[in-house]
Amino acid sequence: MLVLLAGIFVVHIATVIMLFVSTIANVWMVGSSNVGTISTGLWLLCNKTCTQLPVSSRDEASLKAVQAFMILSIIFSVVALVLFIIQLFTLEKGKRFYMTGAVMLVCWICILIAVSIYTARFTGTMVYSTNPHHGYCFILAWICFCFSFIIGILYLVLRKK
């Protein structure tokens, strides 16, 4: 049981780190231009230098929603990690980690909403770019989506023995 708890803890830490990286780094979409490689993220447009991300007024609300839900997913993931540590030392044997699992599933929903909005609104629409494709941050966000669901379900069914 200790190995299972340690494994879940390590995957949870990895998920938090990947969420931070995918939110902060500016490689959600990558394309090429005559200047070189262009990448866009949730915050900046980068080629040789980074500038403010040019967004039409039509897509501005969508981008802000993606930014907000990614930040919320980080917050909920960290809160779930702290709850897990607290519940690990305060719950009696045989009790379940219901609160930790519920908070992690809220994190999962936030990631789902953010990545779905980004996919629907911003995929393939890079300014000044040809041949746009998804970058590693977009892929990390989907990996975090899978990990947070698995971790949330494991917390709900996990008993402390």
TrEMBL record:
Indicate the principal place this protein occupies in or around the cell: membrane
- PROSITE patterns found in the cross-reference section: PMP22_1, PMP22_2
Question: What does the entry list under GO cellular component?
Answer: plasma membrane
The record describes its membrane topology as: Multi-pass membrane protein
Keyword annotations for this protein, in alphabetical order, are: Glycoprotein, Membrane, Transmembrane, Transmembrane helix
UniProt keyword Transcription, yes or no: no
Localization recorded for this chain is: Membrane
Q: Name one Pfam family in it.
A: PMP22_Claudin
Q: Which residues cross the membrane?
A: 7-29, 65-85, 97-118, 138-158
Cited PANTHER family:
EPITHELIAL MEMBRANE PROTEIN 1 (PTHR10671:SF6), EPITHELIAL MEMBRANE PROTEIN-RELATED (PTHR10671)
Its family remark reads:
Belongs to the PMP-22/EMP/MP20 family.
In Swiss-Prot or TrEMBL terms, this protein is called Epithelial membrane protein 1
Q: List the source organism.
A: Certhia familiaris
